[in-house]
Amino acid sequence: MTALLVLEDGRIFRGEAYGARGEGLGEAVFTTGMTGYQETLTDPSYHRQIVVQTAPQIGNTGWNDEDDESRGIQVAGYAVRDPARMPSNWRSRRSLEDALREQGIVGIAGIDTRAVVRHLRERGAMRAGVFSGDAIASDEELVSRVLASPPMEGADLYGAVTTREPYVVPADGERRFRVAALDVGIKFNTPRMMAARGIEVHVLPAATSIEQIEELAPDGFFIANGPGDPATADAPVELTRQVLERRIPTFGICFGNQILARALGRGTYKLRYGHRGINIPVVEHATGRVSITSQNHGFAVEGEAGERFDTAFGSAEITHTCPNDGCVEGLQALDVPAFSVQYHPEAAAGPHDAADLFDRFVELMDGSKS
Length: 370
Hints:
Blueprint: E1 2-7, E2 12-19, E3 23-31, H1 37-41, E4 49-53, E5 77-79, H2 96-102, E6 106-109, H3 113-123, E7 126-132, H4 139-148, H5 158-161, E8 167-169, E9 177-182, H6 189-195, E10 199-204, H7 210-216, E11 220-223, H8 234-245, E12 250-253, H9 255-263, E13 268-284, E14 290-301, E15 308-311, E16 314-321, E17 328-333, E18 338-341, H10 357-369
Parallel strand pairs: 3-4, 4-5, 5-6, 9-10, 9-11, 11-12, 12-18
Antiparallel strand pairs: 1-2, 1-7, 2-6, 3-7, 8-10, 13-14, 13-16, 15-16, 16-17, 17-18
Helix pairs in contact: 8-9
């Protein structure tokens, strides 16, 4: 059965239907991860994106009931080259295609994903659509549908993935700290990583007020990853400013890095095609240490390696950058207890080089108590 991946500039890739039949509209991006497709598909940061996998044999370990990073598949569409014909893993409960079909995710297989990636690297991430079944029409009509869809720049998406009600992830063993975690697209592994360090995590909706934070009397404040344009996140940015005014130790990752940066007065901008994969190097300037990291972001914070700048809360500095392109990968406030990184220390799947950042958060909270 025929399926099409249609890009907004008129480039069309023709393949076979994979997953659900129909139409999926979003921003076409690529990820270089060679493992972890289930975690990628369920990562809320990929909300309203059509993910192109660069690795072959996607689906070879099937789909299990343990590795989801949210309550369902988040992508708007999926593109692979040679999907595995049969899953083989003792934890597998269904095939990847069955999971896509059950959750209504339109996919395409059998296309030259190398050509798609080259095109997106040269032209940049762009609006796209995956079409199959009754959704197929003339090329001109499909391009028109793609052009009528909203762009990612200016997209306010974190409200679509946040929890509707607060919930608590208890600490493993004795509770050492209580953290208020702002869910603007949190992954399940993040509270698990904190719980393993004796942190009781209160996961809160994106619309949480400072009064609700104060009622919890938290030892720390965490800002999660998430989708969309950080320039639209005015409410989380204002909440973060109020948290900083109260000197509550703060840690942010990915979208949370951009929110903290905005709270400190920095701007953000859209990257040409973003960083998405589990093999991206990051340099920590204070030590020269290079970590291999998991990343998924299409926007970045303005700044230069090692730059210091003034904020409403005192001085701050850019602490980490990516050696590939100079992109800001981390910052910290010097006069209030706050820091953030653009990458994923909770990587699942992915390298664990940055897992010690959760220990640094513990040290920040511990130091604030003393």
